[in-house]
Amino acid sequence: MISSTQRFLDILLSDTFDNAHDPEHGGLRLSALLATVLSYLEDAGELNDPRPAYFRDEGSNYAAECHGYACDIDDDILTLFYCIDATEATPLSDRAEIQTVGKEAVDRGFRRLESVVKRTLEGKLDDVEPSQNVSELVTLIKECKEARRSIEFHVIVTGIVSERAAFSVGTGGYRHEVWDILRLARTCGSDIGESISINFMDEYGQSLPCLLTEKGTDGIQVLLTCIPAALLANVYNTYRGRLLEPNVRSFLQFTGKVNKGIRATLLNEPERFLAYNNGLSATASRVDLIDRRDDLARISAVHEFQIVNGGQTSASIASCVRKGESDLSRVSVPMKLTIVPDDRVTELVPRISQFANTQNRIQEADFHANHPWHVELERLSRATWLQPTAESPRGTRWFYERSRGQYVDELAVIGSTAGRKKFRAENPSKQKITKTDLAKFILSWDQEPAVVSRGAQKCFVEFMRKLNSEARTLPDLVEFKRIVSLAILFKTSEALYGELDFKGYRAQVVTYAVALLSHRLQRRLPWSDIWELQGLPTDMLMPIKTILIATRKTIINPPGNQNITEWCKRPLCWSQVVNLELQFTLPEGLEQAPLGGPVANEALSSADRILVDSVVAVPAEVWYSVAKWSKNTNSLLGWQRRLAFSLGTLSGRTREPSIKQAIQGRKLLLEACRLGFGHEQLIPELLEKLTLVSQR
Predict the structure, then answer these.
(1) What is the pTM of this model?
(2) What are 673-690's pLDDT values in tens digits?
(3) Could you list the residue range(s) of the whole structural domain that residue 313 is in?
């Protein structure tokens, strides 16, 4: 049987193989590998918007080398990455055996990263081309002292590192982290994540007083304790995002980590923090207790520790300690610690997290791939075939990967070489769409490039927020085809950017260019032509190049010499780009798509138009009343209640619903009336229109 680590390595190299053909990586295997690993760590909530940026400077005595970086504004940390490819002797298309990497190679990586920082601070890298990604790294390093931002070095290894701790502090006080294949597999290869055990006595020289409650028959026990703020800050600064249960981590990636209200209390009224703050809820599979007397004891260690509520509290306290903004010696944080039996951690911890976050309701399906919308899109992708080719007589498919590794998993169950070759021919890797790709394509076309520029995970979380708030019905074939068309548009734009021989900032320029194209074409595209051609019509290529050139010129020259990457995350950047004066010939065959999304239905038939008009005629107050009535009486399904509210919002903004929203809106309103709902503005004429409209 293949080990979980070997399977993770197989998936990693398969995804790297797909990325290796991307012109952005210049044919460099190492660049494609690092980009893949960084995307995994971002998905796992370990990093925020990481960026590959290959740089090497030989120098007179020793080399300075860096392969990427990530700047976390919330945690005030700049991380530099160095990647060691232990599989480089094996072609990406073949299975690579797991290798052992010595401590010497890892230490060499840390020395080279430290040299990058040293030479930057000495001014020896000031002549780096401003248009390259690494120039931003140089600027960020120089800003660290004034911004009170710490610098860390992370070495990523696609093998097993011997005789090396995961965390250490090197020369100059820089924190060192090692991500070998075992740690990567634990963190990114499953839903459980990396297990955290903390020995408070050994690591911090103190224990936590606690009150014990009676253990339940199911083995669950609750402990009540207080943790000193300084200790909590030390723990958070050591483990950061991996302390947080995955749903909480996803939530904070969108809402932000540092809470202004919590910070204000810490700065102005620290002695009242215990009274004002609700504290933490956490889980562990086991605790070590000392000095136990009746219902009292002291916690000396926790195992498989996770915070399920209180992520912003922890991050805000850690931020204040890092910046030296307040004396927190008098601040303690209350904590409810639930001990969950080891064999039930995977089952119960997400549920505890869900119920602990009822104020900011975090539903697992909201942020994960098991949402029905994604499941249906996956089904459509497997059932929809393109025209046959010489390599694939049956045709090919666009493969929607709603969870990482699906492509490799389906390939792995095929026993024969011929069968695997057939699978690859029918499901080309260039036609694979991940869930974060999907969010990027749709939000770019929705003219939200600033959100896309915040990174893959924040982009996906925002997409899911919109998906749920708009109560969108399940995708159909038309919607799937339009998503594929957006994928083709985006991938072609990336290729054209490479043809223009630009260096750096491709991700930012392309999302802004696609958004600007959407704006200028009023969300119209030759949707049918793109699907039939499986490519863009030739009359679209020159307009896209024109937009790419103008967009890039604007983006890389931000006002006040701001950091380009951070500038692209601001709505003001979009305001500047959208007002560019451009002249280009409109492509032919444009098809209108109504406001509200990139995947609207085809042109309405006369019957559909009558249906939509009958739903639009219903006042917003009626839809809001239906939503409230159904909640009070528990008469309709949850998605119907959300749809009623969304229809009220659309009506209030004088925007039309989609045909699918109109169909379901009509059904739910008639059903509500049948169950006893009434409203003074729901006059008989409106009901008659809804009743007589043609059935679908």
Answers:
(1) 0.61
(2) 888 888 888 877 778 778
(3) 198-359
